[in-house]
């Protein structure tokens, strides 16, 4: 986790320009004075690759899976986008998948929407073709 604080003088936070960077723990008080300001922020370095991996499906097409499972990330994305389920609701349906892995699948979707939507279209077309072949 990366934390820091921007500090300056005056009553208004600057939009641009120079600022000092301080580091400290979340919740650590930083006192500047009655006419100063402080903006304290934290961000996590979160690597979704620790939860996702690309593997071939039975038909050979590469798809993102939750590591160590047979759960496709596209299934989780579908639950969220098509069925309007929260990550917590999705986790109830996949008790062997961590909530962090579910969030990683959703982060993958939000970072690569066009690619994921292409995969979903391909899977839908393949399913329709299989159903047509079975019926006909």
From TrEMBL:
User: InterPro entries given for it?
Assistant: DUF433, Homeodomain-like_sf, WH-like_DNA-bd_sf
Query: Which chain positions lie within coiled-coil regions?
Result: none
Q: Which domain of life is it from?
A: Bacteria
Q: Which PANTHER family match?
A: SLR0770 PROTEIN (PTHR34849:SF1), SSL5025 PROTEIN (PTHR34849)
This protein's name: DUF433 domain-containing protein
Give the organism the record lists: Pirellulimonas nuda
